[in-house]
Specification:
- This protein folds into two domains: about 5-140, Rossmann fold, CATH 3.40.50.2300; about 145-215, Winged helix-like DNA-binding domain superfamily/Winged helix DNA-binding domain (Arc Repressor Mutant, subunit A), CATH 1.10.10.10.
- Helix 4 (about 95-100) packs across helix 6, helix 8 (about 160-170) packs across helix 10 (about 185-200) and helix 9 crosses helix 10.
- By secondary structure, the protein is α/β, with parallel strands linked by helices.
- Strands 2-1-3-4-5-6 form a six-stranded parallel β-sheet.
- About 55% of the residues lie in helices and about 15% in strands.
Length: about 220
């Protein structure tokens, strides 16, 4: 981050939308440098050319030359520490879930208002995940299955890990969870790592989806 601010790349093939998004981001106090790219190819070239990598990429799905879905594999391979927030007009729950399973940190509809954009950026950087308010209910409820007890046994999830998982789903940070449970943030990070490993999820967004889908967390 630049002086404790968030450096962001806006990646979208529509210049007017891209410029408008950049103008909005400039008004957010927590945002530092803002870069732009018109497609996945330009994004990868940009990341190779700048001295300091950005903290967050706002990524459109449908773009020429290399779209958002295609560029994801390169981002995860070469820039795994950069958070990714999808910005799209597509609202199909199956697509949202697919992209989260592919490792994106959040999904926001382009029709969202500026306040939700600011909230999404803050949530992704603080909690590692964000789901658009207009999408989350339908998407997450549509995932529900009936598994829980058998899965807990199968994955060998401990009581403490289940406690940590519930609080992570409630958007608490490792420090906040540690204070709640009387443990160090480092210990909570250890539980978090174990949860990701046991559930074979890529990040917090995937872990939350997994927990809700399998009734390990009730919304």
């Amino acid at each position: 981050m630049t002086e404790n601010k968030i450096d962001i790349v806006v990646t979208d093939d529509h210049m007017l939308f891209r410029k408008g998004m950049m103008a909005l981001l400039e008004d957010f106090e927590m945002v530092g440098n803002i870069y732009e790219a018109g497609n996945g190819v330009q994004l990868l070239k940009l990341l190779e050319s700048i001295d300091k990598l950005p903290d967050l990429i706002l990524l459109d799905i449908n773009m020429p030359e290399m779209d958002g879905v295609e560029v994801l594999k390169y981002l995860h391979r070469d820039y795994p520490k950069i958070s990714i927030l999808i910005l799209s007009m597509e609202d199909a729950p199956s697509l949202v879930v697919h992209l989260i399973n592919e490792g994106v940190n959040g999904y926001l509809l382009k029709s969202a208002d500026p306040e939700e954009l600011e909230l999404a950026v803050k949530k992704v950087m603080k909690n590692d995940f964000y789901f658009s308010g207009s999408l989350s209910g339908a998407v997450l409820q549509g995932l529900k299955s009936t598994t829980s007890h058998d899965l807990v046994k199968k994955l060998k999830l401990t009581k403490r890990e289940l406690q940590v998982l519930e609080l992570l789903c409630e958007e608490l940070t490792a420090i906040e969870i540690g204070e709640r449970l009387g443990l160090s943030a480092r210990t909570i990070e250890g539980h978090k790592y174990n949860l990701l490993e046991k559930t074979e999820t890529k990040n917090m967004a995937g872990l939350v989806i997994f927990a809700i889908k399998n009734n390990l967390y009730i919304i």
